[in-house]
Amino acid sequence: MDITVETTADGSPTLYRADIDEHYHSVKGALAESLHVYLESGWRKAAERHRPVRVFEVGFGSGLNAAITASAAMEAGIPTEYYSAELYPLPMETTDQISDGIPEEYQEAFAEVNHSPWNECTRINPCFTLMKMEADLLTMEFPADLDVVYFDAFAPEKQSELWDEAIFRRLYAAMRPGAVLTTYCAKGSIRRMLQQIGFLTERLPGPPGGKREILRASVPI
Fold first, then answer.
1. What predicted TM-score, i.e. pTM, was given to this entire model?
2. Of 138, 141, 142, 120, nearest to 129 (Cα)?
3. May I ask the CATH architecture of the domain 28-218?
4. Can you spell out the DSSP letters for 95-146?
5. Would you kindly state where each structural domain of the chain is located, as residue ranges?
6. β-strands 53-58, 146-151: how paired?
7. Cis peptide leading into residue 52 (ω within 30°)
8. pLDDT tens-digit profile of 176-193?
């Protein structure tokens, strides 16, 4: 893959894949997007209901979502089990290349999640365990009893197969009552599909300076 490092508007780094003309994060702010869409709108919401929190991330990418969640879990003292699926793991030299641009408070966690082995459960800190799975979302078996799903695949226009209704039906079946799924994609077609499956959906304000809206879906209690 032809991947280059770019700096986003909030000063945090992202990666650009030329083969699909797509960035790994919002160019308006990589860190701002991860904090708002996934940590604040997903993990913290789930942590209100279940402890430990079981997270499943679609697309490990650069490891930024995992790093900020590991830091938050430790700070709040909330045990968190984190599973992440990635079909094309980045080379370690690529993630090391962007580590200097990660804010200091997340640098240690960022290095640890990226240097942890694939397909093994690793304790990153006393409150956070990580299982990075080198796996195809289309065929893998999802973890069960999920409290939150970070759906962070590339855009539907770039990877339409990952936004197929069958995947979301399988995710729904793997989630606990009250569990939440968050994504940066607020397209009407995605929202209506989630509603048809049985999710309760809500549009939330997007991250500062970023997209106007994001989407959160929950399993009825």
1. 0.95
2. 120
3. 3-Layer(aba) Sandwich (3.40)
4. HHHHGGGS-HHHHHHHHHHHHSPTTSEEEEETTEEEEEEE--TTTSPPPSSE
5. 28-218
6. parallel
7. yes
8. 999 999 999 999 999 999
